[in-house]
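Here is one chain, start to finish.
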Amino acid sequence: MGDPQDDADEPPSKSELKRQSRDLQDLGQALVDLPAAEFDALPVPEDLRDAIVAARRITSHGARVRPRLYIGKLLRNIDPEPIREALANRAEVDRQRVRREHTIEAWRDRLLMDEPAAWTELAARVGADNLPQLRSLVRQARAERDAARAPSAARQLFRRLRDLLAAAPG
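Its structure:
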């Protein structure tokens, strides 16, 4: 058996170098796919920023390979961890937003099913003075659903619940 210190002195294998290169290319592709406003907020060197902006203009699938490789090469020359962290934070913010929206949708569905417990819980959370407007929106949403019309009242109910639940403590 070899000494563990001998393994530490060896350079990475060719396969490991390829994995690292592919990983950086994937990170570069994630940067290319970001919306412009979010990309502008990231800590990215100017040459990498220029390469990503240029890659965004390429629409041909086959022509996207070379910029992808170039962006991966540029990423090898910098510490990609701040970029990875920023992307991870963005993903976490998205997950939290989706969770909040699912919670609001669940409240809306419970109210549309006219669960008495839902009304009681909601009154405790947002205050009973907000319930008359919500009851009106629920009636309108049910009427729209029964008449197979566009769900504008259901959307209004969702927005109103979002605002009330965001302002509610806890």
